[in-house]
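FAQ: What does the model actually see?

It sees only this:
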Amino acid sequence: MKNRNGTKKKVMLITPMLHQGGFERICVLTARLLQESYDVVVVVFSMEDIAFDVSGIEVIDLNLKSRKGKIGKIINLFRRGIRLSILQKRLNTDISYSFGMTANIANSLSFGAKKKITACHSFEEIKDKHYMRLISRCSDQVLCCAKKMADMVQETYGFTNVTPLWNPCDIEQILAQSNLEPDQDITFFEGQDRVLVSMGREDDVKGFWHLMKVFRRVNEKNRNTRLAIVGDGDFGDYQKMARDLELEGKVLFTGLKKNPFPYLKRSDIYVLTSLSEGLPNALVEALALSLPIVSANCLSGPAEILHKDFKEVESKPGVIRGDFGILTPVLSPKKNCSVSWEEGVENPEIKLEKAEEQMAEEILSLLEDKELYESYRKNSFQRAKDFSIEKYLEGLVSCMEGL
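And it is asked to produce this:
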C-alpha cells in the first residue's frame, strides 16, 4: 500500500522480544506477509535470545529490557513510549501494530504514528480493566485473536473499536519444517508406543501438572504410551512429578525448539491442559499436522478452534466431541504437583480430579477407537485451512486501511 507521494506506507511492528511464544511468532510472520506491500520494521525492547529467523527483516532494538521493582517498571513503560515516539517520527511511521501487553502499553503511550493498532492474544489481558481502557482509548483499533475475546471486551467494557482477527497459520511452512531433521535424538518417538504431545513454555497457565497426572492414568491403562512436552523453561517440578509418578523414561522435556514441528509430526495426539488461552496457536499448528486433539474447554480459543459454532459448546458441561477435536471440562486453576494414590487396593491408581479423569478417558478412547481417531485426523487438516495466512492478511490489511 502506498502514500500519496507513491512511497510504500511505513509499518512498525512492536514486540517485547523475539525469544519464543505465540505472538512473537505471529509478529515475525506478519512482517514477512506485509513486506511486499509495505515498508516494514520490527521494533523490540531487547534482542536477547532471538529464537526466530529474522533474516531479511529490519529489526531495531530499543535496548529497554525489563526492569525489577514497581517503580522501575513504571519508568520503563514511559521510557519505551517516548523512545517509540521518537523512532516513529524519525521513520515517518504510518501504522504501528503491537503484540503483547508491554508492547501494547508502549504503543498506546507513543504519539509518533499516524495510526495505532494493539492486539490482545490472551484471556488474561482482557481481564485487566485498567490495561484494556488504556489500549482502547489510546489506539485506533484493538484486535482480539478470538471472536470470544472480542465479544467479551465489547460486552464488558462497551468498546466499539474492537475487531476479531484469528491468528495466521502458515500451513505450507509448517509442513515443510516438519519434514526437516530434528535437532536432537528422536529415539523417544520411534517404536510401537503412541506419543502424546503438548507444546508451550513452562508457565502455570499451561496446567502441565494436570497433563502429568492425566498421562499417568493413560499409561496405567495403556502401557504403550509416552508423553513429550515441547517448550522452554524450568520443568524441575514436572521432572520430579515424573519420578513420583513412576514415569521415568516415559516423559520427555525437549526444551525450546526453534522448529518444533518434526516432534509434533512424530506424535499421535495433541493434548492441551491450559487454564486460559487467547487463541492457542499450538492447537492450529497441531491441526495442520493432522493430529487429533483433546483439549480442556478453557476460556478462550479451544471451543472456537475445535467446533464450527463455539457458542454451542463454550459453556456446555461435560465432554464434547466437537467437529474438529474433543473438548473436556475446565481444569482446576490451583497448582498441585503433589502425587496421591488410592489406598487399600492391590494395584492402586493415582487419584485424579473428575475433569482429569474425563480427559484421560477421552485420550484412551482415541487410542482404542481407530475409527474415531481417523475421523479426527482427517478433519484436522481441513480445519487448519480456516486459519490460513491469506485470511489473516486480508483481515489485517482491511483494519490497517480502514476498509
